[in-house]
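Allow me, if you will, to draw on your knowledge of protein folds for a short while. I am sending you one protein, given as its amino acid sequence and as whole-number tokens for its backbone shapes. Kindly check, if you would, that the fold set down in the tokens agrees with what the sequence suggests. The record follows directly beneath this note:
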Amino acid sequence: MVGQNLSTLAVDRPSPPRINLLTMVRLGLFQMGLGLLSLLTLGVLNQVLISELKIPGTLAAGALAMYQFVAPARVWFGQLSDSRPLRGYHRTGYVWMGLCLQAVVLFVAVQVVWQLGASAASGWSSQTYAWLGLLAFIFAVYGLCISVSATPFTALLVDISVEDNRSILVGSVWAMLMVGIVAGAIAGQVMLEGVTPETLEARITRMFVIFPVAVMVLGILATIGIERKYSRYASRSSFADREDKVTLGQAISVLTASRQTGIFFCFLLVMTLSLFLQQPVLEPYAREVFGMSLGESAGLNQFWGYGILVGMGVSGFLIVPRMGKLKAAMSCCLCTGAWFLLGIGSGLSLSSTLLKSAVMLFGLSSGILTNGAVSLMLDLTAAETAGTFIGAWSLAQALAQASATVAGGALLDLGRRWFSETFLAFALVFGCEAIGMVLAFNLLSRVNVKEFQTRSTKAIAAVLEGELE
């Protein structure tokens, strides 16, 4: 009865063409841009704040993490893209608007960083804390800009894909994220080569002009014409042509109808937290324990990018289709935890080669894990409320990344107090990540896609019939 109700209410439209590999790669230009921006915020700016301007790790990480703490807005922006199209398109207009705003906000942010550093250099005062608060506020605004663009973009991937090509789509699109990180790491290393305290400000400011503009152009090229040609949202959604669009409350009712939503939400929290605890401390680890330069430590991101690029590609075309999304993700939870322990071992031996190998292997296993997890995420998304579901999954990931950024810095500060050796302070962070990956494995073992789909279909039918409170 439920299936019949949904099928009669859905609009009969010709099926859009299936996306090909070239189109998937073009979509990946958007993610490539995000990779470039992640290098700016957490690959370069965290080093400048902590190692160059001597801002305490907890305060620096906390200010940067504000762009993730506004993540609850992603649910609203996702639902908005479901129900309020811009110029006839549910996703594209929001994506472009967010990209343009990001470029402006990032340029303002780096100007505030220099003011914060100048104030802190002459002694911490109320003015210094005011600059720090302003920086945190600007990164909160930056987070809203990301929410406006990234959440509708991921919902667009649901709209244009079918179940049997999602692992390839995820592998292709997220592989381009790694291309962006690698390209950004290489470009950053070149642009920062030979930097001195006198030239630091000019070099970093230049990066914060070039990279955001490039990201804006890449994002527009990635998405132009895609929704018009490939989107299946109108033919899939029972709400698409209704005058009474689905409300945020109704969308959340569908979102929470299955206990699988809560289980997967918790898994994303724990997995993402465990993956990113190292994000604010990896480059300082390379500099303080291994004696690397600013450019060399920023270049570590390319080794992680190489690994995750291979992991994404191999998993999308071979591993996930053969093992299945769930088994592939579960196996790589444990593998990723093992590579964190290898990172600790590299510090014991002071082997920069071993550190680079650990970073690359971590990228390889986390690439496979990400492909499996994101493919599951798209499966655990109801077509009618795709933006809202993607907003919820993005919320879990963003909250975890924000917490990881702050917790990573806080754990490092705590380790410095507990241990006399700098290495042990960093080892504390990596050890906590290994434990977290074991917890993520346990949560993922409880995920059941069929149960989710059954419950969500019933909830959507109840909304259509006006019975869901």
In short: The chain has 21 helices and no strands. The radius of gyration is 22 Å. The domain at 20-232+242-464 is CATH 1.20.1250.20 (Growth Hormone; Chain: A;). Residues 1-12, 238-244 have pLDDT under 50 and may be disordered.
